[in-house]
Amino acid sequence: MKNLIFTLLIWIALSSISHAKQLAITFDDAPRSANGYMDGQTRAKTLIENLKKYHIGQVAFFSNSRALNDEGMKRMQLYDNAGHLIANHTHSHPNFLETNLANYHEDFLQAHRLLKEFHNFAPYFRFPYLREGETLEKRDGMREALSKYGYKNAYITLNNYDWYIEDLFQKALREGKEVDLQRLSHMYVDVLMQSISYYDNLAIKHLGRSPKHVLLLHEMDISALFIGDLIEQLRGEGWEIISMEEAYQDPIAKYETEKPLKYNPGKIGEIALGKGQRKGLWHYTLDESYLEQRFEQEVLLLSEN
């Protein structure tokens, strides 16, 4: 009887570990263009206030240093002064498929020289478009560069097209269409939660556990507006928000594909591919036509007329 109880306790403990549901929040493309619903300073202050309101201690902003004009620099200083990490996302956001190794390497270094001056600079590098090099020369060349300068590859595990929802939102405003912000928030949160759940289940399928995840978001107006709604939904479904640095302590950080990938679905997709899965590496919500249809039907007030 004692052995049965002991076995049951071990099973319960392992089960809770395998379904830990932890994630870190990161924002790409900072400081992203801000000339629509909000200006840059309003966006930054709103995002900082909402992160604080919902008790998120520290997130990471991956910066394209080309955008560090006067306004962009002030915006990044707001994030820096609020205690958030500033990391490298290249200078000009090049597509590695269309850029040779030497030019890509220099773009990375140009960002490094500018971004390392921030107080909360952290040596993490996120590849634009998640493209890490489609040839051995390019992939291994950047791996060597990251190692030389003390960087870690800031992979993501939870992929989505939040940036396209933002594009639809800003386009609707430019065209004078009425946008229901409450409905937009509902769509935004629902789309993200669907993809988060999908990739977590994919991880459990191939790893037998829920790893410490890294959520890809972008520094945008809808992020500032609705991050609190997303956090509430995450916590309501049992997710714990952790720091990015803690997330990258997960053993999957050491996983690397044998062959270079032309298009990268994120770390969980890489692992699934390595396990033999060929379809479903990108969730169906990562589709522009799908998001357009939902936006038209659910968000635009004009669709009711």
Automatic annotation (TrEMBL):
Residues 21-242 form the NodB homology domain. Transmembrane segments: none annotated. It holds the Pfam family Polysacc_deac_1. Residues 1-20 form the signal peptide. InterPro entries: Glyco_hydro/deAcase_b/a-brl (IPR011330), NODB_dom (IPR002509), Polysacc_deacetylase_ArnD (IPR050248). PROSITE patterns: NODB (PS51677). Keywords: Signal. This is Polysaccharide deacetylase family protein. It comes from Microbulbifer epialgicus.
